[in-house]
Amino acid sequence: MAEIRLEGAEVRIEDADGASRTILSPTTLTLTEQRIGVIGGNGSGKSTLARLVNGLVEPTAGRVSVDGLDVVRHGAAVRRKVGFCFTDPAAQLVMPTCVEDVELSLRRTVKDRVRRRQLALETLARFGLAERADVSVHALSGGQRQLLALAGVLATEPEVLVCDEPTTLLDLRNTRMIGDLLLSLPQQLVLVSHDLDLVRRCDRVLVVEDGAVRFDGPAEEAVADYVASVDPADPATSTTPGRTSPA
Ligand SMILES: Nc1ncnc2c1ncn2[C@@H]1O[C@H](COP(=O)(O)OP(=O)(O)OP(=O)(O)O)[C@@H](O)[C@H]1O
Fold it and tell me: Structural domain boundaries of the chain?
């Protein structure tokens, strides 16, 4: 697995009135597990944390690296290593047909057009979308669109896949289908999700609150910590005290 390191990584933004606001407090973490979940309330900073991992968001202080590659100084190399999948597949599906969309993902790595088409078709087949190759992306169901977006990212064979709420827009059947797929991948996965059942299947889970990691540990304990932070009386709350492990 890759070594994802945040060293005092902080993200500040400037509000419309010019005031500086911290949306991620200085965070130090080393992530080497295969499946890393990130949970927390709306606006807590989960997406910001996830986006730091492939340089979509740059730290305003501190450093973020993947296998020693600084996400700011070596952004292109990091993005070859780290694929990113958005909540809404519309954010990344831009070509008229499914096969063209996967081809677009491969444009930098596979220069030969015939080989590129062949690889795109093979990728679609792997994701059960072979029949849809020449179909408009708008004709796909929500689950198929999310599958296609994932296929496009995975076609480039990233070592790490960061998914920001990949099942939020999906119904139960598609949530399970995409969830099972993500958790069966050989890639390292950073999964931001509100789906606690999915996150329970991760090896390590970070709970984010108010722009800081409030808990970092095994999935069950992390979920219990998160539930307790929302509703201390919830029976799902474990008696295990929360902990953070910054390194
Ligand atoms: N580019 C930006 N400009 C202004 N504010 C931002 C920007 N990006 C994030 N924020 C703010 O930072 C905070 C954290 O946002 P972030 O998207 O990381 O939260 P989140 O935990 O992923 O939320 P959600 O679960 O709702 O997706 C929020 O208050 C958000 O409004």
Answer: 33-49+90-230
d(CA 43, CA 46): 8
Mutate to test the pocket of ligand 1, among 47, 60, 190 (most ligand atoms within 8 A of CB): 47
Q: What would the CATH number be for the domain defined by 33-49+90-230?
A: 3.40.50.300
> Quick one: which atom of ligand 1 is closest to the CA of 23?
12
Q: Which 3 state secondary structure label does DSSP give 32?
A: coil
Give the up-direction half-sphere exposure of residue 46: CA atoms within 13 A in the CB hemisphere: 26
Q: For ligand 1, atom 29, which residue shows the shortest CA distance?
A: 43
Task: Write down the pTM of the prediction.
Answer: 0.89
Residues 6+ apart with CB under 8 A from 60: 10, 11, 12
Q: What is the ipTM of this complex?
A: 0.95
Please tell me the distance from the alpha carbon of residue 26 to that of residue 173, in angstroms, as a whole number.
Answer: 38
Per-residue confidence (pLDDT) for residue 244, from 0 to 100: 58
Contacts of 83 (CB under 8 A, 6+ apart): 54, 153, 154, 156, 158, 160, 161, 162, 187
Q: In the prediction, which pLDDT does 246 show? A: 46
Residue 100 CA to ligand 1 centre (angstroms): 32
| Segments of the chain scoring below 70 in pLDDT | 234-247
The Cα 54–Cα 83 span in angstroms is 8
Which 3-state string (H, E, C) describes 205-216? EEEEECCEEEEE
Dist. CA 170–CA 175, nearest whole Å: 6
Reduced to 3 states, what is the DSSP secondary structure of residue 201? coil
